[in-house]
Amino acid sequence: MHPSPVELLAPAKDLACGLAAINHGADAVYIGGPLFGARAAAANSLADIERLAVYAHRFHARVYVTVNTLLKDNEFDQAMALCHQLHTLGADGLIIQDVGLLEAGLPPIPLHASTQMNNRTVEKVRFLEQVGFAQVVLARELSLAGIREIRAATTIPLEFFVHGALCVCYSGQCYFSEVVAGRSANRGQCAQFCRHRFDLLDQEGRIVAKNSHLLSLKDLDLSAHLAALVDAGICSFKIEGRLKDENYVKNVTAAYRLALDALLQKRPDLAHSSSGQCGFGFVPDPERSFHRGATDYFLVRPRNRAATLRTPKSTGKKIGRVLARDVVSFTLSGEEPVHNGDGLCFFDPEGVLVGIKVNRAEGNIVYPKDGTDRLRLSVDTEIYRNRDSEFDKRLSRSTLCRTIAVRMHVEEWTEGLRLSLIDEDGIGSAVALALSKEQARAAGMIESVARRQLSKSGETIFSVAAVRVDLRPDLFVPAASFNELRRQGFAAHLKARLQAYIPPAHRHIADTVLWPAAEVDYRDNISNCHAAAFYRRHGVRQVERHPLRAADAADCALMTTKYCLRFQLGICLRPGEQEKEASATPLVLADKTGRYAVTFNCAVCEMTIWRQWPACRHPTGISEPGSPLPVVAAIPAPGQIR
């Protein structure tokens, strides 16, 4: 039986990030195109996507393009034209959310079901496989048991997020931004309500939690669970971060490359899904990049305190505690060296994150740029570093860390020399160089000259594993001729690798597999007539002519989440109480934009936030059943927090 390929899938905000991901070990990269990507702030030109695809294909790595927003009817022609352009330019797959695309004549390119499609049940994933998707991005909330259940019922490749920012809501099901701010998260315009400060109140209006980031989650880190994920059925390991910078991509991609390589060395049943080997001039450490603290979410536990209540910002790595302080400096415990230009931070007595710019450091004595007079910094305060200047410099210098091993054979040719190359994938190429053959003054030197000159790989993607020399000992060839032969050989081999790359193809055939539900509503995200036609073709009888919008729904759930405020705050019902009651008492979530109802379905461990009280959940004294809770402020433009 052939080994199963394992894919490390890295994010790319732009071309530079995409190239960095490939150079640091990614088997595939996902990137937004010029339009219709779920990160509106991370759009890229078609020219840059083509350049990235050509570069990735040298390593037989892949480029997936996100076309994963919901589409309006008047955008459909443009979206279809984009899909065909991306296929022509060499994209290896499209990550989509809008099923209307399957009704509109797609090119023969593999489709990946975005996590925005809310892929968390056996029935949903089986349906997606049956209607022609080539890969499914599973919901982040799934446990190992849930993944195993899906794997047992399907054969489609399964992709899973293993690192980065978490959406608190089931992906694709968050309507907070759309309903309250008029900007749809499903169209790449999320206002990130989950990163706001909130108060939590009980039915009588008493404060349960005050001025906290109650919906802001830590960052996902499943690096300790890669083997378990493989055994559960995951074949593609996805890093979040299409708004993150180049150094983040380098660092986190390298960390997971090393972790997966270590796993592959132990597991003959697994194989790399692209070419080349990586060697890094730095020790990868994801805590030194954007980092809110780590959680494994619900992978191994049905409940988890996954929130970071004090701040949605990056705190970075904890490096010690304050041992002593004076008016210009403080002394830090711990073994982590601090450098000039570092960014440190701490939480003041009110729980506010305060930043410190390091002017200089002498051993464990730190001199902040503006002194310590205004810093509410006391002995035993924990200090974090959210900008490591020396580490960032090493990352900035890290460029091509990935090479493909080749073996060379140089021999005489009637008109000069012939050089043959064969690489680790068995791909071969050959070039010939015409030159006049001269007699050497001293025989026996040519072999050492040939080996020395041909073994140099310079700034290419190749590393020379061996050089075989079949030349007459009395032949003289200048070193410059071997250099030219080597340059031509590498150039020809690059072309040979690109010609040998076979892009994945997938022909889309209309079918009538039944949708696993009898009805649809606003949570099915039908935003155009093509999507409505898709559901009709798959057995849903009643699909309204006009798009079903969350903002038009009388009882709209702004978000439903596996994360539970009651458990996070330690006020969850006990196991015995849960058996008696299907749900806990509703609460009220309030911020500068308004007040929102929070209900709990303890039977399935879910929490729902509503824009108004559902009639069946109305707590006395808050509002009339069905009446809206007020929205009192405009929402600022989307930030770059995620």
Concise description?
With 642 residues, the protein is an alpha/beta fold. Helix content is 23%, strand content 25%.
How many helix segments?
14
**Protein structure class:** alpha/beta
- Estimate the helix proportion, in percent: 10-25%
Radius of gyration: 29 Å
Portion of residues in beta strands equals 25-35%
Strand order of the largest sheet: 1-2-3-4-5-6-7-11
Report the strand count.
30
Indicate the mean pLDDT: 92
Main sheet properties:
8 strands, parallel, barrel
Contiguous runs where pLDDT drops below 50 for at least 5 residues: 616-642
Silhouette: globular
Termini Cα gap: 42 Å
Describe this protein's structure.
There is one protein chain. The protein is an alpha/beta fold and 642 residues long. The chain is 23% helix and 25% strand. It has 14 helices and 30 strands. An eight-stranded parallel beta barrel has the order 1-2-3-4-5-6-7-11, surrounded by six helices. A hairpin with a 4-residue loop joins strand 15 and strand 16. Helix 1 runs parallel beside helix 2 and helix 4 runs parallel beside helix 5. The longest helix is centred in the last third of the chain and has 22 residues.
Write the layout of secondary structure elements.
Blueprint: E1 4-12, H1 15-23, E2 28-32, H2 46-58, E3 62-67, H3 76-88, E4 93-96, E5 111-113, H4 122-130, E6 135-137, H5 144-153, E7 158-164, H6 176-181, E8 198-201, E9 207-212, E10 219-221, H7 226-232, E11 234-239, H8 246-266, E12 270-272, E13 277-278, E14 294-295, E15 317-325, E16 330-332, E17 343-347, E18 353-362, E19 365-368, E20 382-387, H9 389-397, E21 402-413, E22 416-423, E23 428-434, E24 438-439, H10 446-454, E25 462-470, E26 475-476, H11 479-500, H12 529-537, E27 557-561, H13 565-569, H14 575-580, E28 587-591, E29 594-601, E30 606-610
Parallel strand pairs: 1-2, 1-11, 1-12, 2-3, 3-4, 4-5, 5-6, 6-7, 7-11, 10-14, 21-25
Antiparallel strand pairs: 7-10, 8-9, 8-28, 13-21, 15-16, 15-20, 16-19, 17-18, 17-20, 18-19, 21-22, 22-23, 24-26, 27-30, 28-29, 29-30
Helix pairs in contact: 1-2, 1-8, 4-5, 5-7, 10-11
